[in-house]
Amino acid sequence: MMLHDRKPGIRRRSGISLIEVVVACTLLAVTLTALTGLSARMAARTRNIGVIEQRTATYFQEVNRIESMPYDSLSNGRFLVTDSVKSGNIWYAWSYTVGAQTFNSNPTSTSSYRDITLTVTPRTTGATAITGVIRRAKPATYNSFNTP
């Protein structure tokens, strides 16, 4: 008895067919198209996060500037003016609104304060402004003899 590798009349396959190549290419094209769309959305989100990050940095830079200014220089419009800065390819503009001086009377001391509204706006489409209120109090004056 002799063992045969093949049965008579049946041909053996020696490669892949054209339809298998077409199906594989189609699956690859669909997958790459989906990945391209995903990477484009991620790139747009990364750009948006960069704009938000720089807007927030500009906002806190101006907050620090307001906090370091003497209280009496807040009322005149000489130091708190609308201005802008360019970071990367985007301009960021800020503006101030200085509130009226308010007196807060408590049993220990009398102090006054001002509310300063700061708005930082990116000059690009799709980006929103950030607004905050900074309350600056006038430091209480004390004398060395502790008398009124």
List the helices and strands and how they pair.
Layout: H1 18-68, E1 83-87, E2 90-98, E3 102-105, E4 110-122, E5 130-137
Antiparallel strand pairs: 1-2, 2-4, 3-4, 4-5
Which keywords apply here?
148 residues; alpha+beta; 1 helix
Please describe what this structure looks like:
- This protein has 148 residues and is of the alpha+beta class.
- It has one domain (18-137).
- It has one helix and five strands.
- Strands 1, 2, 3, 4 and 5 form a five-stranded antiparallel β-sheet that branches.
- The model has no long low-confidence stretch (mean pLDDT 82).
Structural class: alpha+beta
Number of strands: 5
SSE arrangement, N to C: HEEEEE
Q: What average pLDDT do the residues reach?
A: 82
The number of helices is: 1
Q: Based on CA inertia axes, which overall geometry fits?
A: rod-shaped
Helicity, as a percent range = 25-40%
* Radius of gyration over all CA atoms, rounded: 34 Å
Q: In terms of quaternary structure, what is this? A: single chain
Q: How many distinct folded domains? A: 1
Task: List segments where confidence is low: pLDDT < 50 over at least 5 consecutive residues.
Answer: none
Biggest sheet architecture: 5 strands, antiparallel
Structure described in brief:
This protein has 148 residues and is α+β, with helices and mostly antiparallel strands. The chain has 1 helix and 5 strands.
